[in-house]
Each structure stands twice: as C-alpha cells, then as structure tokens.
Amino acid sequence: MPSPSFSRRGLLKIAAASALAGTAATALPRVAMADQRVLGTVIDYAAGVPSAQAVKNAGHIGAVRYVSARRPGAEWMIGKPVTATETADFAANGLAVASVYQFGKNETADWKQGAAGAAVHAPQAITFHVAAGGPTGVPVYVAIDDNPSREQYDSLIKPYLQAFGIALEKAGLKLGIYGNYNVINWAISDGIGAYFWQHNWGSNGKIHPHAHLHQIRIDKDKVAGIGVDINNVYREDWGQWTPGKAAHTTAPSTPATSTPAASTTQPKQSTPVAVSPNPGQFPDITVNGSSISGEQISQGVKIAQQISSTLN
Hints:
two-stranded antiparallel sheet; alpha/beta; globular; 12 strands; disordered N terminus
C-alpha cells in the first residue's frame, strides 16, 4: 500500500480545480429502469455468510461485501466484515466481490460527522479491504443509506465523501458511492465518485443512467437460509475484485474524472477527531478468521492523522 501524503497547498489546488469543474457540470438525463440492460445480479448481506457455491447455484455472479465492523447493537450482523477466507471461496468458484463501507445507520449514520468522520471511517475501510485480499485500483462504495435533503448533502455528505475519497486515493483505491438517485446526481455534478450503486429510498422509481449497480429488492430473498438483498449489474466493471488479481484496467463509465479535495471549512455539526500522535506498534488481530497485521492498522491510523490535520 503506498504511503499517504497530504499537503494543504495540494488540497487547495485540487479544490480549485474541482470548483472550476463544478461550474461546467450539466444536468444529467433521467431514464426509467427499463432503459438499463441487466448483465447479471449480485447480492449483499450481513446476517451471515453463504458459501460461494450456494451463491453461484442461486444464479448470482458475486456479492458486494462489507469492509466495516458491526456497530453496537447489531451483533446479529455476523457477516461483517468480509474475510479473506470468504473472498478466496468466491474466487475458487468463479465469483467476484466488491467492497462497501457502512458502520452506523439512521441517527448514527457515518456521514453525519461530516468531513471529520472520514478520519474515523476511511482507515477502517482500507484496513478491512486489504485484510480480505482486496487489491488497489478498485473502489470502496461508501454508503449514504438515507434519503437526505440537499442541505444535508451540501453541509455533511459532500465533505464526508470528499475527505473519504482523498484517503482512498492515497491508499491506491477509488471512491464508490452507495446512495439514492439524488445523492448520485449531486455527487456526479460535483465531480465526486467513480462508481455508483443506487438504492430505491427516495429515488421515486428512477434509476440513474450512471449507476453501475442498482439494489432492486431488500429483505425478501435468502441464499442458504441467509437473508440477502438483490442488485442488478449494469456495467461489466462494477468495481469487482478477486484476491490475488490486479484490478480491472477499463475506466468506469462516469463523468467524474477525479476525486476533489475536502472542503477546508468544517461543517458546523462535525466534531474533531482525536488520534494518538504516536500510534506505535499495533499488535496483529484476527476478525472472523481474517488476519489484520499491526502494520496495516498503523497505516490506517497514519491516514486518519493526516486527514484530521487537513481539517484543522
């Protein structure tokens, strides 16, 4: 994993370029669901881990898996986080995986911390992605599992995604966004994100023409007795990866050309992130059978420190 490097001057240059790009953005066309060609289906799940063979037998081509820990009170989410054992099983059965990060939900939603929240959540996403065998060059979908207002997007979600995108880029990864039609449309207009996974809440029956994935059904299906959500795949490159293999070289079909810098002004509701200035040597840990080295954890903390310093 490349060593992260942040500078205030560099961030300001990127911010200026992003502002210019934003002024040239145009409204994107809206199309009905029927206009999208479905290439296959993938599932997402948290209540358990079905075998790759069961997923394949159910007719799916892969899964989007959590690179995040279980939040307090959600101990039933025994399928979080994804592990190297699971991704190896998928690879052995010709299936692929994409990564998604979501820790909190509703009143504890990750994005409600604004840009400062990325200093907490981005290092965790990177750490779990790498521990599960995830390569560089692929996206981590960052979840906006809500139907937010435009004011919430502008003041909290936008800076959260921008800061998260910076951290992912420094780790050799790309920013994907899980959100409804409006969130995807606003983000693309702001030049944020390279991959897009749409959910239906607040989308009013529309599907965004730049969506790579679309979550069409939740809490109604099971694979090997485990509850799963069903997603249509609209792009050959939907952000998928296989452990031990390099990322896809084809560019994603999206107007977003770069990841802009986080705003230099913190949202009013954001809170500072306290990170130890001397993390030292972290011990290796094991989560659900997947090993995470102390070096990986230390790298995540370094990223968190540098994001935090850009917000002060």
